[in-house]
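Researcher: Sequence recovery benchmark, item below. Answer with residues only.
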């Protein structure tokens, strides 16, 4: 078989696909199968004038068919695993989070269809040209059930529920700073810790309840069907069933219907007059018994390998570097994802390990002509100035994983990295939301009649540049990676109510509003003792804003700038997890703070198949970047200790690759957070240290994870 002139580029795009797996579990397979042409696979003479659509070699069809490989190692997987995101570079291929890693885009190829032998016939068949002549479906994904116990996540603070970082449980009755009491009063004097009565009679159960603990479970079944149409053409998707469905949340007997404001609970039927009579779960139905249906289609996109690069189009994952800004969130324990509506093209030169890509994104389109009253047809965008549009450029160097292994084993150094640059803009906006935001008042609700939403626009004048630089160095068992991101831009006006405009600076400074935000993350890791021990150090920094009150932004409006007109709080992608309690749950992400995290992981049992039993310990110290922004006006927010026991089997799918997670995955975790003065009240607030506020309290968490990856 002669070498195709396109092979280098085809290889490059193949590589792109393979490298771009989310979260970066490095594929174990070589990028391209060795061209071991099977007997009878030689194309007919006509092949000399290669059809334009012929895949460049080496094609998967060169790999032995599964049945021909009896007793051999598994055939090299067929087409490259469906790619994820533009970001071959990076990925948190290290560290425990990624141990949970990216199963979903695993590359076990579909079976290669049997070939027609050239001896059998004078004709020639599509089978001679393509490994797949009929669409094949490849299925991956995962299933998980997670139970979690939160203890004292309010940290003992007594904020009103609407302003608390973590509102107290509903069955925790307390007097808040606003002087109001919140929470259930249906406990007995004994249960409520009354000092005047120790009665435990249900007849006296009208006292405040004081429960500090919340516990429950949730589940998700993720399927990622890929339709492999031919070697260079596929459709990929991600569908979640029971997407983070809270166990026990859709019990029979509870149904709702829309009311004048929000929803109203329908009268219970005779068989379920009280919740205690519920004994079975119903399917989740949005607006009836929950807020989200049982099937959530997250992504669907196409990938086409052209001779000069790969085109991707549709709704797809977006991942880059350590996941600070663009984070596909595809790990089995993930919740937040970067999913983009995008048309993109990638190309590169494998010999130089250099790649480039461009992408046109549709972050926000505004109201469309879709209407309940006119179903069907093709809805279209109703206004152009209100679009948030974005253009992306990616330039990066990524050494082919196979080559990388060779370099590292020879004691060489591998350097990968690149730039992901985004420019986004919007001229005017209809961002009217909250009470009164109806079509009649100009808001862009989903059921507006023609022309109705036109009155709700305000000036926005948004422009933002986001360069995201990633780099990594690998040497023997050492890894160092970093990512640096900044948002630089402006708003003309930050207002959201129709017609409001705050461009003019009445206090005399320059008009308009600026965006100046910086984020940085560092990851160091050394593997020791035959890779059983991993010592890691993570650090990160998100710029804060010294004239903003609060790390967590308020709902419904941009953060109030007390002094200047510059938004400076950087927020990590919430999929960038560093702990269990403070940054993951209470603050929901790293924002306006910096952290240091030393950790150690040790595998007690580790088999070549990938089965392992390990433990992990972490310390996370979090500080506010600007003390002014922390509730207590102090830098120190908290010190958290986390411990985990992890068990990974290698049953079932993906057994051919120890690096990919397949089979059962279980985890037990415990965390304790010692809050520091930055999370308390300021001295000037003069909060009594006697009840109801007794000072900051330690929070704890227990977690059990049961998962299956396939
Ligand atoms: Ca629009
Ligand atoms: Ca448009
Ligand atoms: Ca500011």
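Model:
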């Amino acid at each position: 078989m002669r070498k195709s002139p396109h092979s280098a580029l085809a290889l490059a795009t193949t590589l792109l696909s393979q490298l771009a797996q989310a979260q970066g579990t490095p594929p174990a397979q070589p990028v391209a199968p060795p061209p071991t042409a099977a007997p009878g696979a030689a194309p007919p003479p006509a092949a000399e004038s290669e059809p334009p659509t012929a895949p460049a070699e080496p094609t998967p069809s060169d790999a032995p068919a599964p049945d021909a490989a009896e007793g051999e190692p598994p055939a090299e997987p067929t087409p490259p695993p469906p790619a994820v995101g533009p970001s071959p570079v990076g990925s948190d291929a290290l560290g425990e989070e990624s141990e949970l890693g990216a199963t979903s885009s695993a590359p076990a190829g579909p079976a290669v269809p049997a070939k027609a032998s050239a001896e059998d016939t004078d004709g020639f068949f599509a089978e001679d040209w393509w490994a797949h002549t009929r669409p094949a479906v490849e299925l991956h994904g995962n299933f998980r059930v997670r139970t979690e116990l939160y203890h004292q996540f309010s940290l003992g603070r007594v904020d009103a529920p609407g302003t608390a970082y973590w509102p107290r449980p509903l069955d925790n009755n307390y007097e808040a700073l606003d002087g109001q009491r919140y929470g259930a009063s249906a406990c007995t004097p004994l249960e409520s810790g009354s000092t005047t009565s120790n009665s435990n009679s249900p007849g006296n159960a009208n006292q405040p309840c004081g429960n500090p603990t919340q516990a429950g479970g949730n589940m998700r079944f993720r399927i990622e069907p890929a339709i492999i149409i031919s070697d260079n053409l596929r459709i990929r998707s991600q569908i979640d069933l029971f997407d983070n469905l809270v166990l026990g949340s859709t019990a029979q007997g509870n149904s709702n219907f829309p009311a004048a404001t929000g929803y109203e609970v329908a009268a219970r039927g005779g068989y379920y007059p009280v919740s205690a009579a519920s004994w079975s779960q119903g399917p989740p139905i949005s607006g009836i018994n929950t807020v989200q249906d049982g099937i959530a289609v997250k992504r669907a996109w196409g990938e086409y390998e052209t001779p000069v690069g790969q085109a991707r189009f549709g709704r797809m994952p977006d991942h880059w570097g350590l996941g600070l800004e663009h984070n596909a969130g595809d790990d089995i324990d993930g919740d937040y994802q970067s999913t983009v509506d995008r048309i993109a093209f990638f190309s590169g030169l494998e010999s130089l390990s250099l790649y480039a890509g461009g992408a046109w994104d549709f972050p926000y389109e505004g109201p469309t002509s879709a209407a309940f009253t006119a179903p069907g047809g093709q809805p279209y965008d109703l206004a152009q100035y209100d679009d948030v549009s974005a253009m992306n450029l990616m330039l990066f160097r990524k050494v082919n994983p196979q080559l990388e292994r060779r370099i590292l084993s020879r004691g060489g150094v591998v350097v990968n990295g690149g730039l992901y640059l985004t420019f986004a803009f919007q001229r005017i906006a209809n961002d009217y939301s909250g009470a009164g935001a109806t079509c009649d008042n100009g808001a862009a609700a989903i059921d507006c009649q023609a022309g109705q939403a036109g009155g709700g626009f305000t000036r926005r004048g948004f422009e933002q540049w986001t360069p995201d630089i990633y780099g990594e160095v690998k040497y023997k068992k050492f890894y160092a990676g970093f990512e640096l991101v900044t948002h630089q831009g402006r708003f003309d006006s930050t207002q959201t109510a129709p017609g409001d405009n705050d461009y003019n600076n009445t206090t005399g400074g320059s008009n308009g509003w600026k965006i100046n935000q910086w984020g940085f993350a560092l990851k160091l890791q050394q593997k020791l003792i035959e890779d059983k021990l991993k010592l890691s150090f993570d650090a990160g920094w998100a710029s804060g804003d010294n004239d903003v009150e609060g790390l967590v932004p308020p709902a419904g409006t941009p953060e109030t700038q007390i002094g200047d007109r510059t938004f400076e709080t950087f927020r990590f992608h919430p999929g960038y997890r560093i702990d269990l309690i403070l940054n993951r749950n209470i603050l929901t992400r790293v924002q306006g703070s910096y952290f240091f995290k030393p950790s150690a992981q040790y595998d007690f049992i580790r088999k070549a198949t990938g089965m392992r039993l390990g433990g992990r310990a972490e310390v996370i110290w979090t500080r506010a970047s600007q003390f002014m922004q922390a509730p207590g006006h102090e830098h120190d927010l908290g010190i958290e200790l986390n411990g985990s026991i992890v068990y990974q089997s290698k049953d079932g799918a993906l057994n051919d690759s120890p690096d990919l997670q397949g089979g059962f995955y279980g985890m037990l975790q415990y965390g304790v957070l010692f809050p520091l003065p930055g999370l308390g009240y300021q001295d000037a607030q003069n909060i009594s240290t006697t009840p109801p506020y007794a000072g900051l309290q330690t929070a704890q968490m227990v977690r059990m994870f049961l998962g299956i990856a396939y």
